[in-house]
Amino acid sequence: MKRSTVTSVGRHAVLLLGSAVVVLPFLWMFTTSLQSRAETYSNSSIFPTSWHWENYAVAWEAAPFGQYYLNSLIMAAGIVGGHLVLDAFAAYAFARLRFPLKNALFIVLLGALMIPTFVTVIPAYSLVASFGWIDTYAGLIVPRLADVFGIILLRQYFASIPAELEDAARIDGCSRIGIFFRIMVPLSLPAFATLAIFSFLFAWNDFLWPLLVTNSDELRTIQIGLSAFQGRYGTSWNYLMAGTLTATIPSIIVFMVFQRALVRGIAASGLKD
Amino acid sequence: MHRSSLRVAAVVAAAALGLTGCAAGGGSTGSDTVEVTVWHYWDGTNADTFDAMVDDYNASHEGVEIKTSNVPNADFLTKLRASATSNTLPDIAIGDLVWVPQINQIGSLADLGPLLPADVISDINPALTSFGTIDGKQVSVPVSANNLGYIYNKTLFEEAGLDPASPPTTWEELKADGAVILAKTGKPAYELFTQAGDNGEGLTWNFQVNLWQAGGEFLTADNSAAAFNTAAGKEALGYWKELIDSGLSKVGAWGELGKSEVASATDGSWMVGIWAPDPPFDFGVSTAPYPESGTPATNLGGEQAMVFDNSPETTKAAADFLAWFLEPEQVLSWSEATGMLPVTNSIATSADYLGWVDENQPRLRPYVEQMAVAHARPNTPLYPAISLAFAKEIEKALTGAVSVDDALANAEKAVNDVIAKG
Questions:
Q1: CA–CA separation, B197 and B202 (whole Å)
Q2: A85/B70 CB distance under 8 A
Q3: Which helix or strand (DSSP H or E) is residue B56 part of?
Q4: Cα separations in angstroms, A139 against A84, A123, A125, A148, B36
Q5: Which domains does chain B have, with CATH numbers?
Q6: Model confidence pLDDT, tens digit, residues A201-213
Q7: Domain extents in chain A
Q8: Under 8 Å between Cβ of B88 and A130
Q9: What is the model's pTM?
Q10: Given CB 3.0 to 4.6 Å as the disulfide criterion, which of B131, B240, B324, B414 pairs with B376?
């Protein structure tokens, strides 16, 4: 009895400490977002001591953040949609179909995971520029419609679904396409949810690519808008934090909704994007 | 089951529609209007002021449309380099003056000498035009300027029993006042930029002020070798070392002045604009203290405009816009709205501008006066690498790892190595 109380207190102490480590940066962000500019230099309090709510309005008025927000959402939706569809087709081929050089191709694909994005940025940019896609949604979305991580994640999941289910469906006369949509997709919803959240977070937080392919406010995304608060001559920490907090909300919502799928996905694939 | 496949199809269809719908969006204006794109890294007031001036220009000039785009400062060169690979460079790039030699290598810059009226160019502060002169071409013109001065905490001066209206004007006075401040308030008197960090420039460009004041030079006139390992270099670095050894300055991260943890620092004129509306402490400004045996000097910063030679029409229109921007009226309104310093001599010395300064932003006055003694940093594409190599070696003297003489000798070798490698 006594001992279990001690372990329970100990466990909670560890958990509380862990929570504090996670929550404190957010709290500090919130606190800073409510300070006046002068206070950001001198005030190091973790808890809010002044309440300049107008910082949020100022931050949002500093640039067309509504448009940036919308652009980020459109870009993220396009990328997530592309990943869910195209990655799934490729993953199914690698998991179930038989074709020449299948294993070799899969290894090449795995190898592609190790190529840093920075290496491909310039050639990708040249391509997009020659298509005339600078400053378009196409430039933001199309080059990132499919990704290796998603293919591998889904392939692992598809491979774990018993082949007998498919055999049964084929005996009943179902086509390949039918099997894909009626058997594999419904059974793999947790994997799709995982992929969706990873893709969303990637797209939402992406900075370099949107910066390179957009020039106008009409197509800029939220992360680029935020970087304007870190100016050449000084950072407006209060506005930056106010803007960042509002920009973080979609990520937090997506994370809350898909939390389980996310953890399950990491456990199942052993991969983290 | 069926529903989910429908949903997928809907997503694909929506994405496809979204893409085709917008691909046509990138706009070219009417055939007789020349569109000039400008990239700059200004934010806040600077960006708002520039955009408003551009709107004025567009409204009052037929046949041309200037379009501005803010590119974050940290990724400005990255974006330019990517654009240079596929002919998507802007027509005008406005960036930090030390970037000019690098940007000159990224793309083909127009010679602005013949394109701008001669009286406009001759009115610009010579240190600022000399900077954009590369291989006999005027590849850039300044559009905004700033320099380094002495900013001090009036409250801490008062606490130490010093007169906040008479800050130190020489190194000797700074040391004497500093000793009083340290004794009375227990706080360091003067902040030095002591850490090289990842680019070194913070340390280097602050140090150059003291080097020039002591009569030294950073590189030889043709930028072919280090020139700071001299008596003047030893005097400047010795001054820093003495400040640190006596406790008047500390080795550590930059930024203590804003927290009122140190009584003064050499900092840029832009800080006046940032701090004045809501001062984190009661601050005063004066010209950078110099050695009694030396001369006043400061370091120039600010933005220069470069025109990429994309087509004869855009180059001409871009040059016309810059000529307009450098007219007295525009220089005056830019300087007043942003708190940046005027780039032309006629405005910097005009009664209009000085009257405005005295009335609205008296803290800028010392900076304006210093423009006459401002030096520009070496005009070479290797400068960023040189600056880092220099700062890394000098940092070692400041932490006490090597002597002043050794640090300067090591820095000379490191800088010459960078130049030799090219």
A1: 8
A2: no
A3: helix B44-60
A4: 19, 13, 9, 19, 22
A5: 14-145+302-348 (3.40.190.10), 148-299+379-421 (3.40.190.10)
A6: 999 999 999 999 9
A7: 63-268
A8: no
A9: 0.87
A10: B131
User: At residue B26, does pLDDT exceed 50?
Assistant: no
**Of B338, B206, B362, the residue nearest B284 (C-alpha):** B362
Q: For residue B366, what are the contacts with CB-CB under 8 A and spacing of at least 6?
A: B149, B150, B285, B286, B287
* CATH numeric code, A63-268: 1.10.3720.10
State the greatest distance between any 2 C-alpha atoms of chain A, in Å, as a whole number. Answer: 74
β-pairing, B137-138 vs B133-134, is antiparallel
Residue A220 CB contacts under 8 Å (≥ 6 apart), including other chains: A67, A68, A71, A210, A214
The pLDDT, as a whole number, for residue B18 is 41
Q: Which residues of B touch A169 (CB under 8 A)?
A: none
Give the mean pLDDT of B281-301.
Answer: 96
Residue whose token pair is 């991260």 = B253
Q: What is the pLDDT of residues A93-116, one digit of tens each?
A: 999 999 999 999 999 999 988 888
Contact between chains at B74 and A133 (C-beta distance less than 8 A): no
Q: Which of B1, B87, B268 sits opposite A182 (nearest CB)?
A: B1
Residues of chain B found within 8 Å of residue A137, distances taken between Cβ atoms: 18-19, 21-23, 25
- DSSP summary character for residue B114: T
Torsion of CA A31, A33, A36, A41, to 10 degrees: 70
